[in-house]
Amino acid sequence: MTPSKPQLPVGNALIGQSGGPTAVINQSLVGVVEGLRGHKNVKKVLGAVHALRGIVDGKFIELNKIGRPRLERLAQTPSAALGSSRDKPNAEYCRRIFDQLNRHNIRYFFYIGGNDSSDTCRIVSEMAKLDGYALHCFHVPKTIDNDLMCNDHTPGFASAAKFVAQAFMGDNLENAALPGIKINIIMGRHAGFLTAASVLARQNKSEGPHLIYVPEVPFSVEGFLGDVERVYKQHGRCLIAVSEGIHDSEGTPIITKLADAIERDSHGNVQLSGTGALGDYLSAAIKGHMGKDARVRADTFGYLQRCFAGCVSPVDAKEARQVGREAARHALLGVTEGSIAIERVSSKPYKVRYRLINVREVAAKTRTLPPEFIVNGNNISESYRGYLSPLVGKLPVIETIR
Question: Is the pLDDT of residue 261 over 50?
Fold first, then answer.
């Protein structure tokens, strides 16, 4: 006996983009639209303006009315075209969401985002079940931090990593031309994948970054100062990559010790980006240790890493598009909820596959940089270069005469 196909609900689809924008999140948006377009059970494909906030306010854009040429241009445009938010829904918020879902006959919901966004997707799916509301609910992965469980890597990460690598390539040349001590602060609350990407800038052992600090290893200011002094004596300069999420041995982020008032988002996360406090603190510590005449500078890459238009990885763009298509495909096969994960099949040649997983496997959980990629607490192994290079692709060729 042939099993009967699951009965698909007839109604509209809704897509939201949540959390920090990336250079390729619109590829995922377009991928979902492509996957749904033309299916008889999906009457309209709507986009929520500013994510959950747009849902409760009833602010939608009809995406299936957008022509293919415009959609393709949109896919290649960085940042979140629909607008984003970091609202975290409680029971009352979800009640308002369901009022709008019912009003607009939403039966397919796709939420593109990272850890907190996957948890939001889980909450919405569970509320729908409790209400007996037929809703196919899918999380579409995205995060430059590369910290989603069950994924080899995450859409958005490779392009941000390419930005970091190229920024350090240029900064290393500047640091060699005008020798001194330079600190670059890079995004990464709990995971050091993006900070570790700076290793791709290193062409030989004498070139920077000379020191790399990630949040997976407790940070000691005294140890840091000793490292800097040693490298400076050896090379006459020192280029340093530091994750914004570095913390002490008790797990307290270094930056929380510096600010009088710590700003937090709706998920309770301390705001780490958008401030130069950490770089200023480390610069002052170096000058206090090596003397006020030491040439010390610090930059915070901040939000530039997320949506820089000139550093899109072709692999990243392709995979971001495909995870959107995969989410739509599974929804139309009758699966009621899930998340799409990217698994690496091989590095040479580079090949991946896409797998449907339970959203609870990623919801509000954090994957961190494996310890085998970390060397002595202040460096990154060459094996990480092998992991990352296929994702980032070709980098500029650098030539020197000294």
Answer: no
Report the mean per-residue pLDDT for the chain. 92
pLDDT of amino acid 270: 54
Question: In the prediction, which pLDDT does 112 show?
Answer: 97
Structure tokens at 309: 């238009």
My answer on whether 267 and 195 are in the same domain is: yes
pLDDT digits (tens, 9 = 90+) for 328-354: 999 999 999 999 999 999 999 999 999
Residues, the chain, total?
402
For 132: left if phi > 0, alpha if psi spans -120 to 50, otherwise beta; the answer is left
Judge if 222 and 104 occupy the same domain: no
Same-domain check for residues 165 and 292: yes
Number of neighbours of residue 40 by Cβ within 10 angstroms: 7
Whole-angstrom Cα distance, residue 393 to residue 325? 23
331 φ/ψ angles, rounded to the nearest 5 degrees: -60, -40
Residue 193 near residue 210, CB atoms below 8 Å: no
Select from 155, 151, 187 the least CA-distant residue to 80: 155
- Number of domain units in the chain: 2
Q: What span, in angstroms and rounded, lies between the C-alpha atoms of 358 and 200? A: 34
> Residue with structure tokens 């690598």?
165
Q: Show the domain range for 259.
A: 160-306+370-392
Helix axes 382-392, 314-332, angle to 10 degrees: 70
How far apart are alpha carbons 214 and 191 in whole angstroms?
7
Active site residue 145: yes
CATH number, domain with residue 41:
3.40.50.450
Q: Using pLDDT thresholds of 50, 70 and 90, give the confidence band for residue 81.
A: very high
Is-contact 82 50, C-beta < 8 A? yes
- In whole angstroms, how far apart are CA 221 and each of 26, 211, 215? 40, 14, 14
Supply the pTM of this predicted model. 0.93
Could you tell me which residues come within 8 angstroms of residue 130 by beta carbon, excluding any fewer than 6 positions away? none
Q: Which of 87, 116, 119, 145 is catalytic?
A: 145
User: Which of 246, 177, 183, 179 has its CA nearest to residue 209?
Assistant: 183
Largest CA distance in the chain: 83
SS3 331: helix
Query: If you write DSSP's letter for every residue of 207-240 in order, what string do you get?
Result: SSP-EEE-TTS---HHHHHHHHHHHHHHHS-EEE
* Cα–Cα dist 383/367, whole Å: 18
